[in-house]
Amino acid sequence: MADLCERAPTRRSVLGAAGALFAWSFMPRFAHAAGARDARFACIVLRGALDGLSAVAPIGDPGYIALREGIALSLDGPAPALPLDGFFALHPAMPNLRRLYGAGSALVVHATATGYRERSHFDGQDVLESGQPGPGIVQSGWLNRLVAALPAGEAVTRAGALGVGPVPPLVVRGAAPITGWAPPVLPRASDDLARRVLDLYAARDPGLAEALGRGLATERLAAAQGMAGARPRGAAMRVTAEGAAKLMAAPDGPRIAALAFDGWDTHANEGGATGPLANLLGGLDGAIAAFEEGLGPLWADTAIAIVTEFGRTARVNGTVGTDHGTGTVAFLVGGAVRGGRVLADWPGLSPAALHEGRDLRPTLDLRAVLGGVLADLYGVSPATLAREVFPGTEHVAPIRGLVA
C-alpha cells in the first residue's frame, strides 16, 4: 500500500492563508459540572506521525535492535539514551522531559493509538483531533466539545479556548468560544487598518466584527506580553509554546489551548540518537520547558497532552527511515500529572506480535488516556465523555489516576 502523504498544500495550509490572528465566538452549550481547581490544559498535536519506537525506545525488548538497524538507541556511546524504568529509554534529545519524569511530572504512554487503523495522515489527524470514531466528521474537535460541556461562569468557559497557529487546530474548533493566536511570521496590518476593517464589519456583519474584536484583543495581550517572532522549525516550537504559556498565564487568559507542530513524517534519513528526528524532539523538549517557565506557579495545576495521529513501522525501510504505522507513544507532562512512570501493556516486537506484521500493536486506547485526564482535571463524567467529548466510546473506560 502506498503511503498517503500530503506533498501538495494541505487543507489546513490553504485555510491558513486567510491571516495570522483570528477569533470565533458562538453560543456554547453547558451541561455538567467541572472540578474546583483552576487548571490549565494544553494539547500539542505532532502532525506527520511520531516514531514512538525512537522517541521512547524499548531497549529491553529482544526484537528491538534487529528491527531498528541504523537508528537504534543505546544506553552507551557518545549520545546514550536516557533510562526510564529498566525496559524503556527516552531519546537523548529530551533531557528536560527526563528531568520532569524523574520529578514525577511526566508520564509516558506507549503502544497507544486512537481507534483508527489505516495510514492516511488526513484521516488519522481528523480522527485524532475530532475525537470521532472515524474520519470525515470534522465539524468540531473534542477539546472544543469539552469546553462546551463545562458549566457557564467558570474561568475555563469564560475565557474560552486558545487555538495556536495560522489556523486553529481542529481539536479546538467548534461551537464553544475560541480565540486564535499565531506567532508573527507575516507582516502585520497597521492599527489604523485594523480599526477601519473593524468599523466596516461592525456595520455589515456584527457577528464577524465581534469575532475580529476578540482577535485584536488577543493581539494586544500578546504584544503586552512581549511575544517574539517565529524561528526555524525546532526553535519555532519553543517560541510558539512561550507565547501560548504567556497567554494562558494571564489572569483573564484562556485555560485551555491547542497547538500543532508539523514535520514528523520521517520516511527517509530519520536518524537515531542524532539527526532530523533528534532535532525535532529537541525542539519539542524546549517547548515543554517553555510551558513550565512561562506558566510559573500555575505549572502545578497544568497538564499537557502530546499526541500524534499514528506511529511508524517497526522495521526501518530502505532509505533509513520509517513508514506509516499504527501504535506509538504519547506524553503527559505538567505539575498536575501523576508521572514518573511508563503506562504500557507492552505487546512485544516479535514478528507474531506486530500489527499486520509491520507495526507496533496498540494496546491502549488514546481516548481512554485523554478521557481519564479530563475526568480527573475537570470532573467530567464518563457519560459526558462518551456522549459529547469522544462520541461512541461507551466501551472505552477512562483511565483514572493520571492527575495528581
Indicate the radius of gyration in whole angstroms.
Answer: 21 Å
CATH superfamily assignment? Alkaline Phosphatase, subunit A
- CATH-assigned fold name: Alkaline Phosphatase, subunit A
Topology order in helix (H) and strand (E) letters: HEEHEHEEHEHHHEEHHHEHEEEEHH
Q: What is the overall shape? A: globular
Low-confidence residue ranges: 6-35, 185-190, 227-231
The number of helices is: 13
| Span of the ends, CA to CA | 43 Å
Sheet bearing the most strands, described?
10 strands, mixed
The count of β-strands is 13
Helix coverage percent: 25-40%
Percent range for β-strand residues? 5-15%
The pLDDT mean sits at 86
- The CATH class designation is Alpha Beta
* CATH A-level architecture: 3-Layer(aba) Sandwich
Write down the domain tally.
1
Given helix and strand content, the structural type is alpha/beta
Structural write-up:
With about 400 residues, the chain is α/β, with parallel strands linked by helices. It contains 13 helices and 13 strands. The protein has helices at about 10-15, 50-55, 65, 95-100, 120-130, 140-150, 155-160, 190-205, 205-225, 235-250, 275-295, 365-380, 380-390; strands at about 20-25, 40-45, 55, 80-85, 90, 105-115, 160-165, 180, 255-260, 300-310, 330-335, 340-345, 365. A hairpin with a 5-residue loop joins strand 4 (about 80-85) and strand 5. The longest helix is centred in the C-terminal third of the chain and has 20 residues, at about 275-295. The protein is globular and about 65 Å long. Pfam families: DUF1501. This is DUF1501 domain-containing protein.
